[in-house]
Amino acid sequence: MDWLEEVNKEEEKFDQIFSFNEYMEIFERNPSRELRTSSMYLKDMFDFYGKDEDGSFSLFRKNHPNSPPVAGQKRAQEKIYQNLVNFNEEGFNNKFILLVGPNGSSKTSLVKKIMRTAEEYSHTDSGALYTFSWIFPIDTYVKGSLGLSSKQVDKHLQSFAHLEDSEISAILVSELKDHPLLLIPLRTRQKLIDKLLADEPEKLESIQLSYLYNGDLSKRNRLIFDALLKNYKGSFEDVLKHIRVERFNIDKRYSVAASTIEPQLHVDAKLQQITMDKRLASLPPSLQSLNLFSMNGEVILANRGILEFSDLLKRPLDTFKYLLMTMETKTINLQGILTELDIFFIGSSNEVHFNAFKQHPDFSSFKGRFSFLRVPYLLNYEDEKNIYLDQVANVRDKTKFEPHSLETLCLWSVMTRMRHPQSKNYQDKRLGEIAEKLTPLEKSLLIADNLVPEYLSQEEQQILRPGVEAICSEFENDQMYEGKFGISPREVKQFIYELSLLHEHITFIEVLDYLKEVSEKKSEHEFLNIGAQGDYHNSKKFLYLVEQHFLNQFDIELRDSLRLVDNRSYEDYISKYVLHINALIKGEKIKNPVIGKFEDPDKYFIKEFESNIHLKEDPETFRSHILSKLGAFSLDNPGKEIVYSEVLDTITKQLKESFRNEQRKIIQNVGKNLVYYLSEINSDDEEPKKSGLSDEGRAEIEVILEQLHTNHGYTKRGAINCLKHLLKKRYDTAQ
Q1: pTM exceeds cut of 0.70
Q2: Where along the chain do its domains lie?
Q3: Looking at residues 19-43, what average pLDDT do you find?
Q4: How many Cα atoms are found within 13 Å in the side-chain-facing hemisphere of 699?
Q5: CB 592 within 8 A of CB 598
Q6: Would you state the pLDDT for residue 279?
């Protein structure tokens, strides 16, 4: 069984135990790695997995069981990471990170992804973690001052760490997963760290602030240590014989350095006396006389890792007041036992509970110990789409989501979450003026695809493109921030489910029809009751804008299928026109690149060009204006190559429009042929119904449908539905 051998090898790799001396060798080889607090560890984990091309942290894109990749939320990722950086500088986790946002905004998903990746990271060499247990052998190995007898049998045994279970009488684990380095006396430990990190002053400075430099063992481990030291008459070496250093892996399922506290009321941490436990009767008498307690609860289990408080503010405030002292002192007080913690605290809350929390008299006390991070609904429809891909894939056998259908739903969704840009909010007033012109659709396409409206001048486009970040963050610090309202991903998932029950083929048309019904249900969706600001907060206008956008997309795909794409290069076409009018005005000849001879400017070509742009002004005046505009651009941009289609963008638009008009008649004829074609294929007769459709016309329709399938992914039915809708809306043909 090859799989069994493979599993055994994998388990052997991580099921590692060491004596204390063996661990110290590991420590001295890589002291900075072994001296990490939980925040340092998590920061290193973020760095270990790195960033994607778009600047997002790669760990959030990982696909784990029951934890799919997190879509978007780049800002929230960055803020979590920045808090980790700040904690490192402080030497400990001095703030509770509270993710605040509307229901369904991925708050829990972010935390889950950090936990699951931490599990994965702890299995790597870079993410190795160690703690220790106390090992007490049977009397074959030790007799003496531990209270068993007066004779030591084996003087040469250096450690009990590697004894077999049959040779061990008792094991006491470190429930807080105490770091092995805490076994070294404080002053000696500090000198050792100072020496090993002498060449890394910045790292040393940070570690000198941490509990690993200044802290001590937990209460139980300190009692055991001191009792053994006393019995061994001060022999530190003999005490360390009882230490077994063990590698542990973070595991959320079994609450190993990763735990979640649900909003239900219960005790987060508690004590239980263990020295009277019959299972521990084999402890040496000197230890049985101690009042040893076992700590348990989520806070204890999460030490040296991550503790999540799910929906923290659903709990009565008194149940988490202890966090104030914990964040300030790094300790928790359990019935008089002060216990030092090393935990990355993170939690979540929805907007309703957070707003109520801010009105509480004790809020000011918590404010300084909390770092509030907003997690809004997404504004990038491409990121939004990634949330639903798995759901769409799961219904693929019974329902076909045609091209643009999911994008339609996502584009409408992000538009419900947006506010109208206000020029007064921008430092760059010119950018503010341009942003204020944007429709919700234009703003959405700018954020997701960096597409700028064609109606803007070249100068305005150059201002807008680098201003996307400013537009995205305009309302970031506003009480009514973008993504606080609007449709939630949970509701969108329900929409997808309902659409899959209603239709076997879902085009953008079916999606729009469904959303029209949703837009009428103002009592069910709060965002529908927000007063309209122009096109913003106007659901019906959203539907119109989205419909026009995807009609444009399908129109392009149809033209491609008809091979009506514009094969001309507008850049080449315009540059040739400029060349010829420049030569005409100056009375010069132009070299023919084919035959190599100089010829007169082509007046026929010039007139054809001007006819295509429907020139109405005096041709000579127009030509002089064009050359003057190009000359001015060269003066303002010395050394910069002229891109004619951009500098003369108005002419480019006119040429495109002219070309589209040429194609209009062709597409209208397609509409006529489609009527006949549909009458044939929809006939109930056994024999195909004869229509007025020619063989050539029938072949054309079939080629279009095949091209839409092959090149763009439509089914035949989906292509026909979209084609009918386009012809009806754009080409005055009733289908």
Answers
A1: yes
A2: 381-561, 570-647, 655-730
A3: 95
A4: 3
A5: yes
A6: 46
